[in-house]
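Summary for the funding panel

The consortium committed to producing paired sequence-structure records for every protein in the target list. Below we show the first two records in order, beginning with the earlier of the two.
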Amino acid sequence: MMRDEVLERAAARYYDAALPYHNFSHALETIRSGAEIVARCRDDNVSIDEAVVYYALLFHDAGYHEDHLQKGFPTKERYSAAIAADVLRSHGVAAGTIDKVVAAIHATQRDARFVTNEEKAVRAADLAGLAADYGTFRGNTENLKHEYEMLTGRAIGWGAWITQVREVLDFFLSQDIRLTRYYFDADGGSLFHKRTRSNLDRLQAETAGL
């Protein structure tokens, strides 16, 4: 996937390294996942704009540590998209591309619709960690808990947190992002769903055993 070191340095300023999960390393990890998705799309002759996917993933959690409501935005995704638009505009990116980037970032919101291939790819890349190896999945879950406590100023017990995680992931697992044949088994089942469900079931079983 294309990379722009100057733009990445500009984007990094909108991320807070103190956040355990939604930091710039997470953005770079989603870019790596996005590159794989774009490559698979090309293998299957699925049309996709690589630049839109890259720009959207680079900025999709920009400003996450800030209070989006105080900034005048209803969601963190809307705030991140506005940051992306401002920075990309200042770097000479075409208006049409910026519009697609904004839409792709909006598509990462939990209840959002995702229609274009770019929107699907960005949403899938953002969620890719759910289907990673169990150690990564568990580590991400722990980091998200710590981050929630940091941002809200409220402690939450592990059992209550897992219940909350289950509710969120059950929602994501009710959706199906279809882009290329690579992400489905021989019977047409989603590998993402199977791996995520396996991780979630193992996490819940371990929690029940505490």
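The next record, for a separate protein in the list, is shown here:
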Amino acid sequence: MTQPGTIKERFPATAADVRHALIRTDAALDAGGAAEPLRIRAEIALGEIFNNIVEHAYDGAEAVHQRDILICLTLQASGIDCDVRDWGKPMPDGGLPARPYPPIDAGDVPGLPEGGFGWALVRDLADDLCYRREDGQNILQFHLSQPD
């Protein structure tokens, strides 16, 4: 922790490092007094975002000078302010995916989707979700509110 209520970390964009970063983030949020429901919300949203960075932003990215993820989380009474940055490829079409949850037919068990839920989950969990590309960085900012 760099100051009371703030967590800053930079880590390599690999699946293993994402898992370790999520564990460290949860421990830091716990130490900062965040209740378990808010920490669970943070783990789901950040896990989806981090994994998307690993799988999509850096997948096939040409000669990026660094393959890291940078996070800054600020614990507030209302929840957590989040800033996530990477140096990978920009979001398709320059903005956040608007895709809803994939269609589900419970009668077609073999045809159930295995993915496509990530951005829909993030959109459900996050408030004030904002994406921009600046100086070769993807910048995603949002707030995770205390659950009711």
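Regarding this second record: The chain has a mean pLDDT of 87. DSSP finds three helices and five strands in the chain.
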